[in-house]
Amino acid sequence: MNKIKLVTLVLILLSSAILNAKVITQEEFIDNMVSKHNFGKLYLTKLLGKAKVKSSILKIMFRPAKKSKGKGKPWYKYRKIFVNAKKIKGGVKFWNNNAAVLQRAETTFGVPAKIIVAIIGVETIYGKNTGGFRVLDALTTLAFHYPRRADYFRQELENYLILTHEEGMDPLQQKGSYAGAMGIGQFMPSSFRNYAIDFDGDNKRNIWTNNADAIGSVANYFNKHGWQTGKPVIAATKIRTNSIKKLLALDFAPKYTLQQLKQWGLLYFGTEPNYTNGMIIDLKTKIGTAYWLGFQNYYVITRYNRSKHYAMAVYQLAQEIENAK
Amino acid sequence: MLNNIFKMLLLGFVVVGCSINNKHSSDHRHDRTTTPVAPAIDYNRPRYSEPTYNSPRYNRPTKRLAPVAPAKRSNQPIYSKPNYRSPKKRPLKKLASSSAPNRLKNNRYEPDKKNISHPKYLKQPSSNYAPNKPNSIRSYIAEGYAAQYKLAENGTRTTSGKIYDMYNMTAAHVNLPLMSNVMVKNLRTGSTVIVTINDRLYQNHNKNIIKLSYAAANGLNLLKNPSQLLEVRGL
């Protein structure tokens, strides 16, 4: 018994040591920033000292999948949250209010207006709910107190500090979601630096309150990730029953051509040529599981949020808004 | 002796009869050989031309109808209220076996033919409706029940060539032109959807006037109780 206890103790100590070795503390981060980007050490320590560790954010991150809004839910329950009469009505209103800008975004970036509207609707209910947390608070808590994705959020914090310096903004003022996503389009700091644009000519990338900048940024994001203008997003298909497992085990990206997928058991009746790439999506509806074929444009939507349900909800909301308009 | 005489007489009769018969047949044959009845075939006559009949039956003069005046446009609006009385207002009479014994046939409810309010005897599509005529879509009104696509039909090709997607607002119809829009109304709940007809409904059972996609059926609250009376209007 004693031996076993000893072994467990040693194991626990080892594991904690490994975990501790991985975690980078706030001071190390500051040193890194000073050496890498020439930030003032005193300024950064003061700034991060003002940031609060939000326990409510950690609660959201650690909550079980059942209680979360969309995660872990079957498609027919997920769909109700994002594709409903309220969102469709709001989408039509948003489209009518920003028709000229949306048209300009469609012509310059080749991304249809309905997709931009649907993304903004799903993310922030057309700019109504952009998040109530201070971005600095959210990023510091997740970077130093949430070890599972600490690396990612530390990078975002680094990007955020550079971004506020570049844009001449106060890092304590900006607000965003519990994960640090900012503005009408819910851009993370890294994607803000890479893809946010000024779309109304006032030399400011204001994605918090300026609809034009937000619309242009979303369109630019899709354009840079390889949106194919005029190409389909998804199409319903059938699959041979004995090859469902094999096809669903493939990567979540349009890696394979229709020719290959058809050889492996896809029954697609559309007019797309055999050399187009596709991926297979399965969704649980109320009456059973149905299958769709996602093309490059579907994959581009998943770049915004890596979830098959999310991309499908965006596409269907876009279709509904276009029909209702 | 008498017997012998009788026999002889009989023989004589038979011989005479035979001879008469023979004579007759021989005469006939003789006639045919002299005057042939079968006409010679005229190979110069064009084939498949109409045969000429001399009998008076085919030359009977046909009755000429009076010229019909072209129909004038009526001032009535295109949209007319359907001749429909909702079954809620006038509920069917209760099944009283003593008063109406013929209503139950083979354990199946047979509505009384006099009871016009029953949907079975409602007005059929109006007579001014003609298929394959795009102007007539607007005057199309019909009432009846709807069939629904199955789950396995998701991803199959429709008659119009487009793929059936269960989340699209589409429908199949017997003869309305493809890609035309119709408004479908649930007469019990009042909810409406607009669907595009992109498929043909081949199995036109008497009670199904339209076949709805999953999304359209969901919009009309037909998923739990599919047998609800609908109204289909052309747009």
How is the quaternary structure best described? heterodimer
In which order are the strands of the major sheet of chain A placed? 4-6-7-3-5
Poorly predicted sequence stretches spanning 5 or more consecutive residues of chain A: none
Would you report the number of β strands of chain A?
7
- Alpha carbon gyration radius of chain A: 23 Å
Structural class, judged by helices and strands of chain A? alpha+beta
Shape of chain A: globular
Number of helices in the DSSP assignment of chain B: 2
CATH superfamily of the domain at 134-234 in chain B: RlpA-like domain
Ends distance of chain A:
73 Å
Largest sheet of chain B: 6 strands, mixed, barrel
Q: Which CATH architecture of the domain at 54-63 and 129-224 in chain A would you pick?
A: Orthogonal Bundle
Radius of gyration of chain B over all CA atoms, rounded = 36 Å
The average pLDDT score of chain B comes to 69
Please give a handful of descriptors for the protein shown.
heterodimer, A: 325 residues, alpha+beta, Helicase, Ruva Protein, domain 3, Lysozyme, five-stranded antiparallel sheet, two-stranded antiparallel sheet, 7 strands, 56% helix, 9% strand, B: 235 residues, Barwin-like endoglucanases, six-stranded mixed barrel, 2 helices, 8 strands, elongated
